[in-house]
Every structure is written in C-alpha cells, then in structure tokens.
Amino acid sequence: MDAHQRAKLDEYVDPEFIDSSAGVFPLTIIMSFLVVFATIAILWWAKIRSRASRRGECLLLCGISNAGKTLLFSRLTMGVAKRTLTSMAVNRGSMTLENSSSDRPAKKVRVIDVPGNLRIRQRDFNSEKASAKAIIFVIDSTTINKDSKDVSDYLYDILREKTFRQQRLPLLIFCNKQDLNNDNETTQSIRQLLENELTMKRKTRTSSVAVHQGKAESADDIGRAGKDTFEFSDVKDLQIEFVDGSSLGAEKKSYAKHYDDIDEDDIISTGDETDAESGANLTKVYDWIEKIWIK
Amino acid sequence: MLDFFYILTKGGFVLWCVPSSATEFIKTINDAIDKAVLQGQGAGQKWVAQLTSHHIHYKLDNEFELVFVLGYQKTLNISYADKFLDEIQKRFRDLYKDDLRTGNFTRAFAFREVYEKSLKETEDAEDEMKKIRRLPRSYEESDKKLKTVKIVTKKGDKTAEENKPKKPKVMKSSSKPSVASNQKAPVLEEEEEDDENVEEEQDVEDQDENNGQEDKSDEVVSDDAMMNEDESNRLPLEPVQPTALSNMQKLQALGKLPGPRSKGAPATKTPGKQDKDKPKGKKMAVSLKPNISDTNGLDYTKKVDIKKEEQERTTVAAPLAARPEGGDLKTMAVESTGLASGLVDGFWSKLKKVNVFASKTLTAEDLRTGIETMREHLIAKNVAADVAEKICESVTDKLAGKTLGSFESLTSNIRQAMRETLMMILTPKRRIDILRDVVDAQKARRPYVITFCGVNGVGKSTNLAKVTYWLSGNNLRVLIAGCDTFRAGAIEQLLTHVRHLNNIFTEKNMPMIELYQRGYGKDAAGIAAEAINYAKDKKFDVVLIDTAGRMQNDEPLMAALAKLIHVNNPDLVLFVGEALVGNEAVDQVTKFNQALIDHAGLQTNPRVIDGIVLTKFDTIDDKVGAAISMTYTTDKPIVFVGIGQKYQDLKTINADVVTEALLK
Questions:
Q1: How many domains does chain B have?
Q2: Strand residues in B19-124 grouped as ranges (E)
Q3: Do the chains contact at A85 and B109, CB–CB below 8 Å?
Q4: What's the gap in Å between the CA of A161 and the closest CA on chain B?
Q5: Distance in Å, alpha carbon of B654 to nearest chain A alpha carbon
Q6: Nearest to B429 among A119, A209, A212 (CB)
Q7: Which of these CATH numbers, 3.40.50.300, 2.60.40.1080, 3.40.50.1000, 1.10.3470.10, describes A56-293?
Q8: Which parts of the chain span the membrane according to its record (chain A) (predicted)?
Q9: d(Cα B295, Cα B149) in Å, to the nearest integer?
Q10: Residue (of A126, A132, A210) closest to A164 by Cα position
Q11: Residue A42: Cβ within 10 Å count
C-alpha cells in the first residue's frame, strides 16, 4: 500500500513539477517577445510621427537656376539678404510666423530650397516633394522671355504631379526681381506667356518619343481635358496664385525677430547685405504664407 | 594676383569673399560650379573657364558642406593655388568650427586679415622654393637611378611587382608566346609558393628544355649580375651606362630582341664585361640575391604584406603570363565573376573595418580600395577607361572628409555617391525638345534642319528613317536630304524608306515625306543647301540630312563634314554612335568635336555636336557604359536611343535604368 501510494504520489508530483517548470519557461519567452514588440512598436510610432510632423509643414521653394530661390530662402528664414551663388545642395531652414492678431504661439514653418540646376533638380525635387505642404515657384521676371521653355517645363512637371493634385496643394507663382528693370514683365503678361507655353508643352510632351523601359505613365493631363489651350483658371486640383515682388526688398518684418541680435554694422561691413530700397518687397508672399499656415 | 576667392556653402550662401563688392565673376563661378563640381568634370579640382579666361581651382569640404573657390587669369601661372586652398580651408575651419557646425551662417566672418596673412605666407614660401630649385639635381636624387631597376619589372606594374619571384620565368615565357606559356603554366604555379627555390626549379626545368631557353636563363642571370655590378660601381658621373643597361633590360623584358637569344650567343648583345660572369651561370643568381642592397625591384622578400584582396583578385592589367591560370580562359571566366562578387566580399571585409558604433571620418585612403573596385566594375561595363578614372576621382572628392554616421557602411556610401554622379552625368544640362523647336521654326517660316553624322556603320540611315517615322506621326512634313554621295546604294536605301513611310502615312493628299537627292559623287554641302532651299519653298517642316560615314581621323572627310555644317548651319547636329563601342567612343566624339571647331573658318561661334543618338542599344545587355563615355566627353544629352531595327524602335534614354544597370 505504502509503496503503491508512494508510487502514486510520485506520479502525482512529477507532472506538477514538470508543469511548473514548463510554466515558467514559456512565460519568459512570452515576456521577452512582448518587450521586443513593444520596443519596435514605439520606435515605429515615433518614426511615423516625426515623418508626419514633417509632412504637413514644409514650404518648398522651386524654380529654375538663377530665379532667386536661395535669396528668398535667406530672407524668409534669416531675415537678411545674403549674397548667393548657384546652390548645389538643398537648403533647409525654418521661419517663425508671428501671429499679430491672436495670442496663439508663433507657428514655425519649415522651408526647403530645392536647387534649380537641371542635373540635381530631379533627384532633390523627388526626395523633397513628399514633405510639401505648399510650393512657391520663383520666376525671374527679367529673363522670362528667354527662359520660358525651361520654366514651363518645370511648371509642367509640378502641375502633373499626382500627390500634389490629390492634396490640393497651394502653389504660389512668384514673379521675382521686379525691382531690377522698369520694363520687365508684369504678372499678367507672365501668366499669359506661361499659359501659351504650357499649351504647347501639353502637345509636345504627349507626342514625344517614349522613355526606354520607363514606367507606363498615365497621361495625367493638366487643365481641362477637351480644351485646346491651357489656362491656369482651369486647374482645379491646385490652388494657384500669382504675385510679384522682389527678394531684395529691404523691409524686415517681424518674422525675423529671433535673428535681431545681428548687428547692423557686422552685416554691412562684409558687404553681404545688399541694400535695395525700392518699393517691391515680399509683403504679398508673407501674406500668402500666413493665409496657408494660419487658417 | 588672384582675381577672386569665395567661400560658400553647398546650399549657395556666400560666407566670405574677396573682392567683397564685385559681381562680375558671379557668372564665371556659377558656370564652373555647374560643370566642375556637379558633373564631375573638374579633373583634380581644377577648371579652366572657357569664356572668361580664368583658371579656377576649387576644393570641397564635405564635413561642413563648404566649397572654397579661387580664380586667376589664365595668363598667370600661380603654382601655389592648391596649397593655398588647403591652407585657407584649414584656417577657416579652425576659426569658425562651432558656427559651421550649428549652421549659423548669418554671422559676419571677419576673415580678411587671416586671409591676407596666409596669402603673404604662401607667396613667400613659393618664392623661397623657386630660389632653391635653381640647382640641378644630383644623380642620387634623379629618377633615372630608380628607373634602372624598375624598368625590369614591366614598367612598374604593381601586380608584376608582386609576382617578382616569377620574374625570370616571366621574361622567358613572354618571349616565346603561346606554345611555351602553356607548358610553363604548371611551373609558374609551383613557383608562387617558394621564393627561395626559384632558381633551383629553374635549373630542373631547363634541363628538359632546349638550348635556347637555357641560354636565356643565362642571359637573365647575367643581366642580374650586370646590374649588381653597376650598383656597386655607382658613380654619379656615369649616367650613360645605366641607361644603356635599362634599354637593354627593357627590350629583353618585353622579349622583343630577336635572334641572339635563340642562338645562345650572349656576348653579341651585351657589353663585354659580361663574359667573365657567364661560366658561373645559374649559381651566380642565387648568391647574388643577398648582396643586392638597395635595388628595390630585386627584393623578393618584402612583398608579403600586400593587401590580401589584391592577391586574391587578379586585375585586368596583369600581364597574361603572370596570371596563375596562365591564359586559360575557363579559369579567367571564373575570375571575372570574382570581380563582381569582390564587391560583396569587399563589403563584408569593410564592415569589419568600419567602426560600427562611432562616427568615422572618411579619408582618401579608406576610399581607395572601394573606389578601385568601382572603377574596374565600370570598365567591365564598357565605360571608357579614362572616363571611369575621372568619375572615380570626382566620387573620391565628394566623399573625402565626410563623416560616416554609425551603422553606415563605406560601400553603401560609395555606391550612393557613384549613383548620384552617374545620374548627374546622364541628366542633360538643357532638355532638347525637338517638337517644341519645330514650332518655333514654323513660326519663323523656315524648316527645322537636323544633321546626322558619325563613323561608318553605326546606323545613321536607319535611325534617320525612325526619326522620320516619328515626325510624320506628329503630322510634320519631312524632307530627307541624301547627302551621302559616296556609299553605294545610299540613295536607293533612302528612297525605299520614303516609299514605305509614305505608304504608312497616306492621309493627306500630298506626300508627307520626300527625298531630295542629286545622285552620287557630288558635293554634300551643296546638296544640303539646295535641299534646305527646296524645303523652304515647298513648306516642309523638317529637313533631315543624312551624311556619309567617316572615320574620325580622316582629315579631308572631317573637313568636308565641317564645311557642310558651317555652311548650312543646321538647328541640330546629332552624332550617331553605337552602344557597342568601348574606349573608341571617347576618341570618336572628341575628334568629331575638334574637327568641327578647327575647320570652322571665320566663324566666332563654331558649331559642335548638339546631341547624341545611341544606336544598337538592344544588342548590349547591361554593358551600357558607352552612354556614360559619350555624355561625359561631350557634355551633351543623349537625344534618342535606338533599340531595334524597325521604325518604332526609337526611344529616349532612361537614366535610372542605365544607372542601375551600371551599378549592378
């Protein structure tokens, strides 16, 4: 009886023993998996969040070479007009919008300046376009007649971009350098010129030779489908506005307050600040930016 | 003396410049930045501006994303420019390191004094150097002294230096081609292992060979003896002796000296001093080795620590006989995939080297192996050799001094930089939109004229027909001018094309396409002029001029082509080149361009090639290097790509696909 009982007890004990030890083991495994998953989830969420936070806030400055994008960038982000040369890399900065009316805290706007050189424009534009909330397309008003083909080429690419059309991106066409000559083009004539060019561009682009092994691009036509000529008013997917102005204008608004520690003397002595005092300035651009970011 | 000096960020902000107020150089610098830095054309960080007669030197600082540019007049000769750039870069960085790191570009950089001081110091140092250099070099310092030994090692070829133990064998087998080399193959392999027993093996082998080779070994040995004697009699006033020796050595090494070798009469070709050495024969060679003191080339023991990778991988440049497989194609085929996989091997071995947890600054030394591999890879993909070289230089410039983030590997950085460079080369500076330009020409009531030129047999006439098909499909009336008045059947070929295409496009009442020809043997330029006038009268939209194929070094034909182009002034000059061409591509486009400029006559703005048509693209799989060679040399875009022999086989180039194919 005793032996039998003991044997039975042994039997009884053993499975428990096994079970408990087995019970500990999977528990640790499950715990460790949970920790790993939690870490991955947290990292992924943080990454998504940072990307999303970049997405909605960037202002893109585009345009062909020598249009004045980098100068505009320095005016917006730093408040000074630094001397510039051809950009060969993307400029990133931020500007602060001071809301003079309400008491909301000043909003920060990220600005990205994409180089205009044709060789690097493609790659830089493609990598930055995902984070665009609004685009300022800068045009040199003094040379627009000569450069109309290149300008319309670039503008055509922007107008055709699917992601922009889906989000109804605001596009400001900024006719720069109005201060240089007196007889340069007005906004209206530039608009007309671009419309003519884009009309022709629509035709030639669709009938040009296909790209070898290229992706089958859906012919996203700009403007109204049936109409022969292109007009900016036909473009419903993007909010297009035309303004003129000059990046060199000497007015410093309150947007650059955090750079006010710069001494006036310092800047002028190195000959960096160009002091143009003619009337054309950036007020219209600032108004437009405010309109978009502070709704 | 320097016209300007600019310090700017890569984003385009000028941090500091002298002269501080002048704006006349801006255009020059912008142009230089575009060509030299972006496209990678500035060889060795120098650039000669074409239009404004400036020499421009620049230096990239990849750590802080800065560019240092200076320029001076072409007529001056400023030798300290590069040193000065380095000096200024160092000083500027040291002074403003913190500001540069935080990106605080709005502050004023009061750099003028430091600059002036540096300039003065550099100029003084340069004057000092000039004074010292007036004394002529003594023999000790001259290059000739090193040459006596190096010549023997096959013009300083690195892999040949490694295989120095096989040198006697190499020289023997190179003079007796194919037959002997196959026999030598097993012997060569044995020799790799044992330096010491080289001569002994040689002895053993020689007893089996015929007389001639035995004598050759004598030659080799005695030449060593000769050299040793010269070394021991080293006198600075005897330059003649070493040069005579080196020429001899050179010729023997190349196996070019005929006759006397096989006859086995050494006395006839080397100076008499040698006779007393001959009887000692091979044994002499063995005992010679320890005595040679500072002849680097004969030192067999030093080369053990060459990088493992280079020994494992045989480079393309190694002489045939020196390769371990001894010219056997099969093993060579295996080796070539080793080149591609070498990229992967290189990746893993480099990953071990890369410090994974701390950031590392890249130096030129780190980049060297990876870039070398990339260069060979490009050459294997049919990129011309000098173009590959220049591309690798520009990639090195771009990466040198860059800080690697943690977990970034060297290879991925190199690949990324290479991809960017190749994309930039393939992206045109100006997009050529033919249809748009035709519209302009129509408004001006004149035809749009395109000329096709190129060497023989590249596909000018075929691709001209494809372009005609495309233009006609866009409702443009095309006139083909048959200016190939030389090749038999050229006119008939074009007539056939015209007939076919007119059959396809039969909507309008008048024929869409016509051929203007005046038979064979006439002057091509005259025919072209008449064709253009005819087109203007009959209101044709486009004129396509087909020219005869010609070799780029054929002077009279190139002059005739230049005359055709300059007399008729076409809107577009297209150079037709085939994708199969390798190093020839560079030569072709360069000589064509040069001929057009040389024979321009009195024109101030000579026409050059405006675009490239790359044909037979379907026959190369991924060896697409010709595209890179041609665009790099001319800086002009590839307008069309021919991918077959039917009318529809005309496309434009896809830069992404070509770059990926090159990097695969």
A1: 3
A2: 46-49, 54-61, 66-73
A3: no
A4: 19
A5: 6
A6: A119
A7: 3.40.50.300
A8: 24-46
A9: 6
A10: A132
A11: 10
Nearest Cα of chain B lies from the Cα of A149 at a distance, in angstroms, of: 9
Q: Tens-digit pLDDT profile for chain A (295 aa)?
A: 566 666 666 555 555 555 555 556 788 899 999 999 999 988 888 776 665 445 567 888 888 888 888 888 888 887 777 778 888 888 888 887 766 555 566 677 888 888 888 878 888 888 887 888 888 888 888 888 888 888 888 888 888 877 777 778 888 888 887 776 666 667 788 888 888 888 888 888 777 777 777 665 555 566 666 667 777 777 777 778 787 777 765 443 333 332 333 333 333 323 233 433 333 467 777 778 777 777 6
CA distances to B3, B81, B401 from B87, rounded to whole Å, are 18, 10, 15
* Distance separating alpha carbons of residues B436 and B427, to the nearest angstrom: 19
Q: Tell whether B16 and B119 lie within a shared domain.
A: yes
- B78 to chain A, closest Cα gap in Å: 25
In whole angstroms, give the CA distance from residue A87 to residue A72: 13
State the burial class of residue A96 (Cβ atoms within 10 Å of its Cβ: 0-12, 13-18, 19+): middle
Tell me the residue length of chain B.
664
Q: How far is CA B273 from CA B231, B232, B266, in A?
A: 14, 14, 11
Is residue B466 domain-shared with residue B374, that is, in the same domain?
A: no
* Angle (deg, nearest 10), helices B211-232 and B281-291: 30
Contacts of A124 in chain B (CB under 8 A): none
Query: What residue ranges in B248-393 does DSSP mark as E strands?
Result: 360-361
Rounded to whole angstroms, the Cα distance separating B181 from B161 reads: 19
Collapse the DSSP code of B542 into the 3-class scheme (helix H, G, I; strand E, B; otherwise coil) and give the result. Answer: strand
* Calpha distance B418→B399 (Å, rounded): 10
Determine, for residues A153 and B657 on separate chains, whether the beta-carbon distance falls below 8 Å: no
Interface size between A and B, measured as CB pairs under 8 A: 134
Q: Answer yes or no: do B436 and A113 touch at CB < 8 A.
A: no
Alpha helices in B384-523 (DSSP H): 385-399, 410-426, 434-443, 460-473, 490-504
| B417 and B466 inside one domain | no
Amino acid type, B412: S
Share of chain B above pLDDT 90, in %: 10
Rounded to whole angstroms, the Cα distance separating B641 from B654 reads 9
Range of the domain at B12: 4-134
For residue A252, the SS3 value is coil
Q: Which residue of B11, B37, B67 is in closest CB contact with A113?
A: B11
CA A256 to chain B, closest CA, distance in angstroms equals 12
Cβ <8 Å between A212 and B617: yes
> B3 — phi, psi (to 5°)?
-75, -40
Residue B641 is nearest to which of A119, A153, A212, comparing CB atoms? A212
Residues of chain B with pLDDT under 70: 20-23, 37-52, 103-108, 133-135, 137, 140-360, 405-407, 507-511
Residue pLDDT, tens place only, A144-164: 888 888 888 888 888 887 777
DSSP readout, B158-180?
HHHHHTGGGHHHHHHHHHS-THH
Report the residue of chain B nearest A211, measured CA to CA: B652
Closest CA to B169 of B130, B217, B99: B217
Rama region for B205: left / alpha / beta (φ>0; ψ in -120 to 50; rest): alpha
**Pairwise CB contact (< 8 Å): B427 & A212:** no
Compute the distance between CA of residue A155 and CA of residue A186 in angstroms, rounded to an integer.
18
What's B32's domain CATH number?
Answer: 3.30.450.60
Same domain, residue pair B359 and B400: yes
Pure H helices in chain A: 2-55, 69-78, 118-128, 144-160, 162-166, 187-207, 264-269, 283-293
Whether B416 and B494 share a structural domain: no
